[in-house]
UniProtKB/TrEMBL annotation:
Source species, domain of life: Bacteria
Family under the similarity heading: Belongs to the Gfa family.
One Pfam family cited in the UniProt record for this chain: GFA
This protein's name: GFA family protein
Lineage, highest ranks first: Bacteria, Pseudomonadati, Pseudomonadota, Gammaproteobacteria, Vibrionales
InterPro entries cross-referenced by the UniProt entry: CENP-V/GFA (IPR006913), Mss4-like_sf (IPR011057)
Entry GO MF terms: carbon-sulfur lyase activity; metal ion binding
Keyword vocabulary terms for this entry: Lyase, Metal-binding, Zinc
CENP-V/GFA domain span: 5-110
Organism: Vibrio ziniensis
PANTHER family per the UniProt record, alphabetical: CENP-V_GFA DOMAIN-CONTAINING PROTEIN-RELATED (PTHR33337:SF40), GFA DOMAIN-CONTAINING PROTEIN (PTHR33337)
Gene3D superfamilies from the UniProt entry: glutathione-dependent formaldehyde- activating enzyme (gfa)
Length: 139
């Protein structure tokens, strides 16, 4: 039986369903992923031979293909949220983990391109955790 996963963008205009299973879940630290997420890494799931169905808002989805590379990013043109991209060259749908609304059971498979990792990401073990926005930011 094929698993079905649902997801959406931040503004809710785009919704999708993926029919298939995730084979891998990579935390990519390459500089391209840093630029397109604005963070230390991208968190992408890969689903080979899966079917992506846009349930609504397909006309609001744009895809940027970086020149001379396999790096592509699909996003909602209204809110900018990352959305799945069909990677034909590897017969996979690449799904940004944060775009999923359904729970997944796969854990990250690997951190990749760690030689490009930003220096501050390596020292997070002693950073405090908060359930919500900390008080010092609210003042």
């Amino acid at each position: 039986m094929t698993n079905k996963h649902q997801g959406s963008c931040l503004c809710g205009r785009v919704k999708y369903e993926l029919s298939g299973d995730f084979q891998s879940f990579f935390l990519c630290h390459c500089t391209r992923c840093q630029k397109d997420t604005g963070s230390a890494h991208a968190a992408n799931l890969f689903a080979k031979a899966s079917t992506l169905t846009w349930l609504q808002g397909e006309s609001d989805v744009k895809t940027y293909q970086h020149l001379n590379s396999m790096h592509a990013k699909s996003f909602c043109q209204i809110c900018g949220s990352a959305l799945p991209t069909i990677a034909e060259s590897i017969n996979s749908v690449v799904v940004p983990a944060g775009s999923l609304d359904s729970v997944i059971s796969i854990e990250p498979t690997a951190k990749i391109f760690v030689s490009s990792c930003v220096n501050w990401f390596r020292y997070l073990d002693n950073v405090p955790n908060y359930e919500e926005l900390p008080e010092q930011v609210n003042n």
